[in-house]
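ok trying this again, last paste got cut off
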Amino acid sequence: MHLRVVCPAELTERVVTLLRGNTGVADVVLLRGAAVDPAGDLVLADVAREATSTVVDRLTELGVPARGVVALDQTDTVLSKAVDRAVDAAPGEPTDAVVWQELRERAGAENELSVTFLVLMAIACVIGMIGVVTNQPVLVVGAMAVGPDFGPLAALAYGLVRRSRSMFLGGLRATVLGYGAGVAGALVAALLLRWWGLIDVHDLVKPHSLTDFVYRPGALGAVVAFLAGVAGAVSLSTSRTGALVGVLISVTTIPAAGVVGAAIAFGVGDDAASAARQLAVNVGMILVGAVAALLVQRGGQVFDQRRLRRRYA
């Protein structure tokens, strides 16, 4: 990670001493008076990913973010013997390291209750509902891929693990209102489609050999949701975001919310209750899996840091 620090002159020596004293930091550069707004000195460094969270925590303790800037950028290629030594000295493996500040920013970005988020949730639930009533698993999978619901769940998990009240409450609000928008969108769409003669109540209550799993709670579905939560947390925290697509299409939260809306529109209480239970189980197990993954990662980092301190004691 490339670290850029803008700090007032009175903090510069402490910042430089902190960076030079960390074995996971290399290539420290100091440019005095280079910063104009906020005024101060500019400090640059390359930091092993495994050491980044610790370094940023120490900078925060010094009060740098409150009076200046701490910025991180992912670097794909660095040719430096000093960086190689820093990576070797840092605890753990780069691919497994969690930069908690980076994860907070990612989860926080997904926590924003925007019009775009609510519209995507509504559209995804409508697609999922249509997939169920027409017994088309392709549409169900497409709905799960469109739905942006994992972001708020990740924020919830982060808030629990890091004891961040703001992240937890933000994630809870986005989760509740997001699924609420999805249910409302599916309800309105079901009424319109019935009015246009495209679907009726029979399409919902008849057996769906390929899509019944969406709104019929089962033990295997709960297991899949738990594993998806683990995979989602790991992919977000270690920058392996390519795995998120698989996470999104492996659980049935979005189509279940869509069925809840359609069942309410058609007055089918049993199906509405069944789909709501499926939604609650999936959301709960995703959250449990994500929290478990983050706790294990945090524990692994603490162990690696203690082992490093013993090595250099």
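PB: full thing came through this time. The CA atoms of residues 253 and 279 lie 5 Å apart.
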